[in-house]
Design goal:
5-stranded mixed sheet, 7 strands, binds zinc ion
Length: 197
Amino acid sequence: MAISEIDKLIQILARLPGLGPRSARRAALYLIKRKENILHPLIEALRMVDTAIRPCGNCGNLDVADPCAICTNEKRDRTKICVVADVSDLWALERTGAWRGLYHVLGGLLSALDGIGPEHLLISPLVRRVEEGGVTEIVLALGATVEGQTTAHFLADRLLPFGIQISRLAHGVPVGEELDYLDDGTLIQALEARRSL
Ligand SMILES: [Zn+2]
């Protein structure tokens, strides 16, 4: 009985990105041995995240408030929206401190291979935000993968009729590099040297 409960924990941990079965076993044992210092604070943090964190109805960011703290921040430049695939990309850009505009999180990238079409992503809400007016520039920060480029072209086609500036990150990074893996310096450079489409 006890073994199977531990097995269940290991199986769940092994589903986390970056953790294989072997590191999941190590993590499980680590948690069990350190109840006070690690397990209990982790349970508390998971419960908090479960009940308090929600996606922002405006931009798709994750926060305790909806609209999120970025959308409601008066100091952000509301005329510029940076479009990213995932919240991890938003975090990467926020870490650099180089972007002072707003964001739009698509929730993924177009992929014929994985059967992900425009209807699976938050593309219509982005078009609606532009339609509402006040936006003068869209920066497509979707990475250099095939999916990133396909999505960027699709969005550019949808947004060009609005007559706003559409730019994409300049990147001196190898094709296939994901945004989240870029170091801060490269990311700042790619943002500052963004090119108009
Ligand atoms: Zn937001």
